[in-house]
Amino acid sequence: MASYRIRQYQEKDYDVVRTLFARGTVEHAPATYRHVLRSARVQLGLLVLFVAVRAATGYWVVGLAAVAMALAATWPMVRSFSTSYVQEALSTDLCDISTSYMRAPDSCFWVAEAGGTVVGTVAVALPQDPAERGVALELKRMSVSKDYRGLGISKALCGEVLRFARARGYGAVVLSTSVVQVAAQRLYEGQGFRKVSSFSPSLLGTLLCFQIFHYRCDLPGGTA
């Protein structure tokens, strides 16, 4: 089993952290596409399209071609969930990681290092939801390289965030993850998180049945 250590972020990690985050996020695009195609709403829409084109042209082959074109057009829309999220992160908090997490109050950024290479990341910061501020901290930017999964790195990174929040007297840690990130959901639930709400990130997300899950872990002894 490969050994690893968890340490705080350093400026030398900048490029590899951004690359690791981007690759890990875009990696979920195929799973998102499969999730969308399994949606009853999308399947019904494809069926209606096939029937309408078949009735209008009199050829079932043309109907199948229309469905194929719709499927091809759906892929870039689905992939945009990942790419737009990556672009936003790289241009905001991950544009200046030290300022966003290492100098900001009640914030931190950790990396997992194996063989001298950064193979995992996680951050903690004040929540985006104003109602949670002063009560909870938010776990963000969790990512582990595909080659190093199954070694307990994600669990160790999550543990760093929970300890950090507990040490500062916060009563909870919150986070968001997508409907297709099943492994992440299992990890968080195993660490004491529970799903408290869900929402679609956009109108397109609603149409394609793509949801974001909001999780919360209550910490014993928190006083903030």
From TrEMBL:
The chain crosses the membrane at residues 44-75. It comes from the Eukaryota. InterPro entries: Acyl_CoA_acyltransferase, GNAT_dom, NAT_camello-type. Keywords: Membrane, Transferase, Transmembrane, Transmembrane helix. One of its GO terms (molecular function) is N-acetyltransferase activity. The keyword Transmembrane helix applies. Residues 69-220 form the N-acetyltransferase domain. This is CMLO acetyltransferase. It comes from Thinocorus orbignyianus. The gene is Cml_0.
